[in-house]
């Protein structure tokens, strides 16, 4: 299992956190997601054999947020 910390822009509240956690948690290979809007941080633990960081970033962007 790998863990990645992503800087995510556009999160303004707990609802934004929940949206990102819900979308990423639904993906095959994602084990754990933590989002912290005050720090612009999303931490994802995932199985790199099933999913990659680019896909995680694409899902976040598709949900209306930015990834730096």
Would you mind describing this structure in some detail?
- The structure is a single chain.
- With 68 residues, the protein is of the alpha+beta class.
- The chain has one domain: Alpha-Beta Plaits (2-Layer Sandwich).
- It has two helices and four strands, in the order E-H-E-E-H-E.
- The protein has helices at residues 14-25, 53-62; strands spanning 2-9, 30-36, 41-46, 66-67.
- It has a four-stranded antiparallel sheet with strand order 2-3-1-4.
- A hairpin with a 4-residue loop joins strand 2 and strand 3 (41-46).
- The longest helix is centred in the N-terminal third of the chain and has 12 residues, at 14-25.
- The termini are far apart.
Give the overall shape: globular
Distance between the termini: 23 Å
* Total E-strand runs: 4
- Percent of residues in beta strands? 25-35%
Q: Work out the helix count.
A: 2
The sequence of SSEs as H and E is EHEEHE
Major β-sheet profile: 4 strands, antiparallel
Strand order of the main beta sheet, please?
2-3-1-4
Which architecture would the CATH scheme give at its second level? 2-Layer Sandwich
Please give the domain count.
1
Q: Strands, helices and their partners?
A:
Layout: E1 2-9, H1 14-25, E2 30-36, E3 41-46, H2 53-62, E4 66-67
Antiparallel strand pairs: 1-3, 1-4, 2-3
